[in-house]
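Two quick folds needed for the group meeting slides. Do the first one here.
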Amino acid sequence: MAKQAGYIKLEGTIGDLSFYKNRDGNFIARRKGGVTKKRLLTDPKFQRTRENMQEFSKAATAAKFLKNAFREIELKSNGGKLHNRLYSMAMKVVKSDPVSARGDRKFELGDMALLLGFEFSEKAVFSNVLKKQPDILDDPAYVSVTIPELVPMKYLLYSQGSTHYRFSLIRAAVDFEANSFNTEISTVVPMLINNLSSPELTLTLPKPAVAGEKYFFALTLEFLTQVNGNQYDLNDVSQNPAYILSVV
């Protein structure tokens, strides 16, 4: 694959060359041709390729379900490449399946603990934005997060234009075999960003223990702006951190 380096930016097809603009804004040239679909699906030489394709598909499906289950976070903490980054992690989980044959490895049989610490926005790492350590209690029956007392202007790396902030704990329950998910949120009212001390707060969600479901808990920090008494999302939500803190 070639990248165009000159001033002429082409899109479309000329002869056996295709020109297009990728997501990063670069103009790319690609030559037509390659292996036919029939050969790819039947030729023994491409057995490893077929196995990889099967596992790629499973990882993509798992990433899609996780992204949909965490839709609240996708809308409010997203650096723009969330699906690709989730897919990359899902692929690692698929490959960690210790029992299935190559090509048949499954996300639900892999080590989902690999998702612990996953940051939803690569532009806002949680520990860089909140300068105090949350106290996380991962009990057999629930997950609880306590945010210590803090002075917002001192301990929060808040986005420009922010007037308020809000913490939330989100639980995504996903059944990968039944292709279903549901979400529950524990949150608080938005708090003012100022030089006064904000009280300690605790967010808690239970672990339902429903057969077939896997549970992913994420902590989010959202910055808001107030206009005439109403709080609104900022235009740039990539500065809102969120990360997975428990997987059950």
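Then this one, please, same format:
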Amino acid sequence: MKTTSIKTASGMYINYFFLGMVNIILASNMSSLTKQWNTDPTGISYVIAAIGFGKLLTYGISGVLSDKIGRKPLVVASAGIMAVFLVGIPLSPSYELAFVFALLAGVANSAMDAGTYPALTELFPAASGSANVLVKAFMSVGATLLPLLITFLSDHSLFYGFAFYLPAAVYALNIVYLSTLSFPKRQKMPTSSGQQESPAFLSEPVFQKEGTALIIIGFTSTALFTVSQIWLPSYAQKAAGLAESASVQLLSYYSIGSLTSVLLLAVLLNRWVKPVMITLLYPVITLCTLAVMLTVHVPVVLDITAFFLGFSTAGVFQITITLMTELFWKRKGTVTGIVATASSIASILLPIATGLIAKAGGIAHIFMFDFGIAVIGTAAAAFLYYRYKKLTAAPSRN
């Protein structure tokens, strides 16, 4: 493995380490931001939705730019735009200006994805799956550490904005670092036989069946972790009476669960466990976890459920894309874009919907709604599992 490839990958992983923080930074500072912008938690959820909206608006153009001008410009630009977001939020005097900065964060996220995933595949063609799984791992570590930083600032009566400025400073430094690195040339990578081969299916997959199920899973998988990342601390404060600093720690347990899951999947997938099994098993775990969380309001139980929520929602979206490209391998780019769009729609709608629920019925109703989403995701996964078993060839017996 070339040293240059490792250096280039490390720069991109640094971006995602801090993206893990960005994903929860608004929800984790909800109390401070509601005071600063004279709004309520519902208002903060709308700002969070703006990130998803910015991502959805630019998904298509980011992919085109990645193929036309290369991966490096998008990766470098994403770090710069994200730094602007992180500096801008604590300095925003109004809710409206914060909304604009949140849109920029969505643009940065879109550019980061469009540049990084293809670049990692081109850097490590023989281990692209592992390279992409590490993206989620770095995000989980970043999300685990942010609550600790916020707690430190709170305990020492320091300005909450330092939790934004530190990642912004690193992003700025990473721009310089990434600018000095070489990225691989864009090229088509054939299989060992020199051409694309069709997976072995007993019959042709039907997009209206398997494809629809995977689109639903793409939506619900994103919806489930979006709700948890936004509302888990608020739920702990309301349901169990936890202090703000203690409730934010739940996001650390959530992220530890997510990281544990990603590392476990990297070892187990395709060796001992098929991806389609994970798409069914994980939503079932989420269902059980939400049921416990809604009925048992003990702090230690909430710590445990936060871990399992993180565990069972991690990696499902990536596995969904893997299955979609396996089943509909002739249109990999198109079907990947469809799943990504469903995910982006979830990242927009869920903050808005849950914000309205919080205003109308309270925080507990949000997780009842989340339970319903998990039921839908589980039903879609069960249908997919049934169809996949019918499609795949039976293993040969010696």
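Slide caption for protein two: Confidence is low (pLDDT under 50) at residues 188-197.
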